[in-house]
Write a structure and sequence with these properties.
Length: 323
């Protein structure tokens, strides 16, 4: 797609995935509105485009329907990335999770319908599968989410499809599998790779919740951004599509790999209680993404980790002796 003629709005534009996507869209010449309530998002994530004439940042909340109606005027494509993102936090605060993810998404859809938006691409999550035993996960498998977060994401996928069927709105849900990379925050509720990188840099042990045999299909954020661009280009809608690396790794092996790549093998890996709401294995079948989007991940986990560590060292002026 030639993004140069497009007016694109990204919800959650200052967050981890949203900021990576927003920066790429601006680089491709789109006119982009970045919408974020700055609750989890950080202006620092988008500082390099703040002065760009093709970019405008709007502070706002997806729970404010009237404001969405106002800012959606003249928009062609919406990437709906804003979300309550933490599984353990959703266990502590299910109402907040539902309010942001479900009510917020309904607002986005209703406002988009009123404004005749061309296409909405929704950032969903592999957590909708829950602990079903079959691996890899295929889009048409039964979904049994085991956390309030997973339930909320499943509800939003349902709304995306229903708005497509009933109102003819062109929607698409991308089900991401454990995304990592630049601009992911190191906080207790962030993804494990960002947390462990922070610990490594402070020479602290890596902590695993459970026995370390659980696995994830860690996906590099640049591949996720690429999938989002492809999703706008293709003429498909009403679909749900897995976006993953298609190569799972156990948490124990991930910890060892991160220690090896940073030559910090002397640090310990310690084990503690399993986290409530956690699924055990997660691994994507990406054949649908290959077929419908022509998607092919460009980074395996090791390449993604190295690219991320290099970015981090450059950005925060820290040094790591990388393998
Ligand atoms: C992550 C995302 C979620 C997304 C989902 C699927 C975050 C915060 N969550 O959920 O938004 O929808 O992937 O794409 O990015 N772990 C440790 N030690 C730690 C931290 C975590 O062992 O210090 C373990 C967890 O118990 C879990 C695994 O690492 O087994 C992954 O956890 P996490 O990175 O939080 O991701 P998910 O819960 O899978």
């Amino acid at each position: 797609m030639n993004f140069k003629e497009k007016n694109v709005l990204v919800t959650g534009a200052a967050g981890f995935i949203g900021s990576n996507l927003t920066i790429e869209l601006v680089n491709l010449g789109a006119n982009v509105i970045g919408f974020d309530n700055l609750f989890n998002g950080r202006i620092e994530n988008i500082e390099e485009i703040l002065e760009n004439k093709s970019f405008k940042f709007i502070k706002g909340d997806i729970r404010d329907f009237n404001f969405l109606l106002e800012v959606f005027e003249g928009i062609d494509i919406i990437y709906h990335v804003a979300a309550f993102t933490s599984v353990p936090q959703s266990v502590l605060m299910p109402e907040s999770c539902n309010d942001v993810n479900v009510n917020g998404t309904l607002n986005v859809l209703n406002a988009a319908r009123k404004r005749d938006i061309e296409k909405i691409i929704y950032s969903s999550s592999s957590s909708v599968y829950g602990d079903t035993p079959t691996l890899p996960k295929k889009e048409d498998m039964p979904r049994h989410p085991i956390s309030p977060y997973g339930v909320s994401k499943l509800a939003c996928e349902g709304y995306m499809q229903v708005f497509h069927k009933i109102y003819g709105l062109r929607t698409l849900s991308l089900r991401y599998f454990n995304v990592f990379g630049p601009r992911q925050k190191d906080s207790p509720y962030s993804g494990v790779i960002a947390i462990w990188l922070g610990r490594l840099l402070n020479n602290k042990d890596l902590i695993i919740f459970g026995n370390g045999e659980q696995s994830r299909d860690f996906t590099y954020v640049k591949d996720v951004v690429h999938a989002n661009l492809l999703a706008a280009e293709q003429g498909i809608s009403g679909e749900i599509i897995n976006i993953g690396a298609g190569a799972p790794i156990t948490l124990s092996n991930l910890a060892k790999l991160m220690l090896k790549l940073t030559k910090k093998e002397k640090l310990n890996i310690s084990y503690t209680d399993t986290r409530s709401g956690d699924i055990f294995h997660s691994y994507a079948d990406i054949s649908k993404a290959k077929e419908l989007l022509n998607f092919q991940p460009k980074f395996n986990q090791e390449e993604g980790l190295k690219d991320y560590f290099n970015w981090y060292c450059h950005k925060y002026k820290v040094s790591l002796d990388l393998n």
